[in-house]
Amino acid sequence: MPMGHEVHGQGGFKFQNWAKTYGSSPELYFQPTSVEEIREILDMARQRDKRVKVVGGGHSPSDIACTDDFMIQMGKMNRVLKVDKEKQQVTVEGGIFLSDLNIELSKHGLALANLGAVSEVAAAGVIGTGTHNTGIKHGILPTQVVALTLLTASGEILECSESINADIFQAARLHLGCLGVVLTVTFQCVPQFHLHEVAFPSTLTEVLDHLNDHLQRSQYFRFLWFPHSENVSVIYQDPTNKPPSSSASWWWDYAVGYYLLEFLLWISTFMPSLVCWINRFFFWLLFSSRVENIAISYKIFNYECRFKQHVQDWAIPIEKTKEALLELKAALENNPKMVAHYPVEVRFARGDEIWLSPCFQRDSCYMNIIMYRPYGKNVPRLNYWLTYEGIMKKHGGRPHWAKAHSCTRKDLEKMYPAFPKFCSVREKLDPTGMFLNTYLEKVFY
User: pTM of this prediction?
Assistant: First the structure.
């Protein structure tokens, strides 16, 4: 880099997350194009005693990405650096969106074995918050990471994998953005595949009574429960050699359904008792018949979040699934004033050894609850939120890091056996707390 090159930050930038539920006004906003520029930003932060927050797609439905100091957006560091066809691995810059990576991998006949519902998210952010999908043979997305490089607060670059800096690797695979700047990520891939998706109606009793059968029957099984009813939509997704099928009319129905849903939910903000009828009506309209679809894997894994929402998503030990869901159902039945939008999305993930993974050392059930914000209007949700959190905590739950939760360090130390290990790595890599923000202070102090 030529001498005297100054890296310039933008003032007056307003950051908002995708759901527009959290935002902040960083003093300076940077979009670096090289490691040297990031080093300069960190130097400047050190000299001015500022903190630094790195962001990707800004999809997290919490304040994990917010800061009033320096913000680094990694969107310009988004290249595919290497495709190793023999090992079926890909190395990418931390800022690449999974939506772009999926297309690049497809050109090489490769794919990620599992993806979350949204792909407008950066590789480093996806692993930083522990993004997950479903499938009891599949771990959360960070389990697909075999190596990464980290730029620390001091400007040092660390290569991390199972064999190099192994401790830092187990911390950095789910890093919360507090260990440094993730420059590159190496993912383990699989050969490209198509998925056959089948969705069919069932009841909560049936699914909970035969949970193991469902888990064995489909590689990526999940189900949607419609609160204030027994209605469930079961979704199976499995690899197939059949050619893709067209489902355009189904998607059209779905889109129209969502616009109608938003309008009806807006009306229900004046008459909350309508929600249980809206949930039933939409089950009947969109989910009460069997639907099939075949497409390339990432098109099935991804689905469009059509409008803004508040969400909570906790992971509990898989054997607690039935008990916890029935408690949530009973709580709604016993409190007619407490309303819950559909769906409660129930997904499953394999246990792992990543220190801050909600699936650390146990197979888990994720239970995702939603309150939509029709036309951006906030809907009362506190009672539902607290009831749900209480049930999750009682059953040994751990919150999804990207989503809003009320846990403090005291809670997290009880939930995570490896929490002290993570803290000691964090304190060693970032002794002055350069990469902390308000969200992370609640986690670590």
Answer: 0.93
